[in-house]
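FAQ

Q: What does a record look like?
A: Structure on top, sequence underneath. For example:
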């Protein structure tokens, strides 16, 4: 969904890679993506403590100067930090044609979370990334597979409107919208609580019910939002959680 053109690009990770956070499924996914599709400059500007927005801007400015297309992988929170830095510096970057971003979500826990549409808009304004090449990914630790935005770049004819895109599931992942009261499957286009049957979960359980509401049309899903009772979750919270635990451990040791 992110490399339908078979491109091999410079890669920038704005979330820790597997070497820096081996227990994170997102870190592992990012590392595999870099191994499979990376070529040229490769960088990671995130640790457990946070993302180095200045380092990200410097890396991207370098690829832009070399006219080297780049793929940027990160959570919504990390993109928000980068966009804030570029605006503060007054230095938008025009990335080379073919550059793209993968926004993995994870605005939860941020003071002013960006919507998927806002990420696409800012990526165009501050990085020169075409809207169709700003792809939002939907996934979770409990599910091995992911769903990605359908845009004119990866699916000719897709509507591609930021914030209202359908996300496509791989053939082995079956999405279902359930009635939240009866738990029975709903017909196409009916809003329900999303559940997934993921055959890639060979080492765990294949049937998962989420706290997200959406619409299912065949293998395509529109994510509409979380249930009101759903707590804040997501990979964007992981860095803060680990940092808090480490601080608590160090404090206890000193005491």
């Amino acid at each position: 969904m992110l490399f339908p053109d078979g491109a091999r690009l410079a890669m920038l990770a704005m979330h820790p890679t597997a070497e820096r956070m081996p227990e994170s499924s997102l870190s592992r996914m990012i590392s595999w993506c870099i191994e499979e599709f990376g070529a040229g400059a490769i960088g990671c500007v995130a640790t457990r403590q946070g993302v180095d927005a200045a380092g990200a801007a410097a890396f991207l400015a370098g690829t832009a100067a070399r006219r080297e297309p780049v793929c940027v992988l990160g959570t919504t929170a990390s993109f928000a930090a980068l966009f804030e830095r570029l605006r503060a510096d007054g230095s938008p970057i025009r990335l080379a044609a073919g550059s793209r971003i993968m926004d993995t979500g994870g605005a939860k826990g941020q003071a002013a979370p960006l919507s998927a549409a806002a990420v696409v808009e800012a990526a165009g304004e501050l990085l020169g990334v075409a809207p169709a090449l700003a792809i939002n990914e939907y996934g979770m630790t409990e599910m091995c597979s992911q769903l990605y935005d359908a845009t004119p770049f990866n699916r000719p004819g897709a509507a591609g409107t930021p914030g209202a895109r359908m996300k496509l599931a791989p053939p082995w992942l079956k999405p279902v919208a359930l009635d939240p009261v009866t738990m029975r499957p709903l017909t196409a286009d009916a809003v329900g609580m999303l559940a997934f049957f993921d055959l890639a979960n060979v080492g765990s359980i294949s049937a998962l019910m989420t706290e997200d509401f959406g619409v299912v049309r065949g293998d395509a899903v529109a994510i509409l939002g979380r249930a009101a009772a759903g707590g804040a979750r997501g990979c964007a919270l992981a860095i803060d959680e680990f940092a808090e635990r480490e601080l608590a451990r160090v404090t206890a040791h000193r005491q």
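Q: Is there anything notable about this one?
A: Confidence is low (pLDDT under 50) at residues 234-239.
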